[in-house]
Amino acid sequence: MRSPTTTRPRSAVRTMARLAMAAVLAAGGVLATSSGVQAADNPYERGPAPTSAILEASRGPFATASQSVSSWSVSGFGGGVIYYPTSTSEGTFGAIAISPGYTAAWSSISWLGPRIASHGFVVIGIETNTRFDQPDSRGRQLLAALDYLVERSSVRGRIDGTRLAVAGHSMGGGGSLEAAATRPSLQAAVPLAPWNLDKTWSEVRVPTLIIGGESDSIAPVYSHSEPFYSSIPASSEKAYLELNGASHFFPQTVNTPTAKQMVAWLKRFVDNDTRYEQFLCPGPSGFAIEEYRNTCPSY
């Protein structure tokens, strides 16, 4: 026997069903529209839809120019070179400061400057105050270079000062971890074959991609890159890429896997461009890749 509370006229039931269906469709329409608008209206999206061919090419879709920065005109770091997209129709760009390694000059990894800039970033490759500066000093210098870019450089009008990143090789990579720990407002960090006496980075909240070399004898991955990665909290966005057979000096020659993942990481976290997630999750594979670990971008 039915309970009286569940008995309704058929016409009323039909009416309620139609109203319920209309509500579901309307909600679906709103959700679809909102999702579409969100996908289409990312104000930081720059450049065409990404492909492996675009990321693996020697240059990205943006034409670039460069200018030298004298050490006499800056404070806190040793000058360097700025690379920037020449386009003025795309709005502002995110920016990244990159440090060379111990005893090295920017010229040792300078191929990264135009390569990254051509994907829609302003890049400053720094010279350090001395060739022997340690990672903590290099971290401070990276931040000083970013402050210079945003506040005083001749290209400051091209830069969105809320979208900044750091990277570096060897002690410069260790310096990028120092910078990320010091300034959590950074959008990304990419240490390359990083070296640092500090092995724990539980304070890092900046999305961090660490790239190490399997055959690195100066900063072996088991005592540097791997513990650095493991110590960053699982709640932070992070990835670890180990290159098959690569030595400590892999960033000093043109290296397509390094550039491809580096650009994809910067695009995803500096530009908030989810089109690049396909290159981060599940990530790279093939002969050049020894290992890849990641948390995958979460929301």
Automatic annotation (TrEMBL):
Keywords from the named record: Hydrolase, Signal
What SUPFAM superfamilies does the annotation carry? alpha/beta-Hydrolases (SSF53474)
User: Which PANTHER family has this protein been placed in?
Assistant: DIENELACTONE HYDROLASE DOMAIN-CONTAINING PROTEIN-RELATED, POLYKETIDE TRANSFERASE AF380
**Protein family according to the UniProt entry:** Belongs to the AB hydrolase superfamily.
Q: Which GO terms describe its molecular function?
A: carboxylic ester hydrolase activity
Top-level taxon of the source organism: Bacteria
Q: Does the keyword Hydrolase apply?
A: yes
Q: Which Pfam families match?
A: PETase
Query: Any idea what this protein is called?
Result: Cutinase
Please state the span of the N-terminal signal peptide per the UniProt entry. 1-39
Domain (PET hydrolase/cutinase-like) spans 38-297
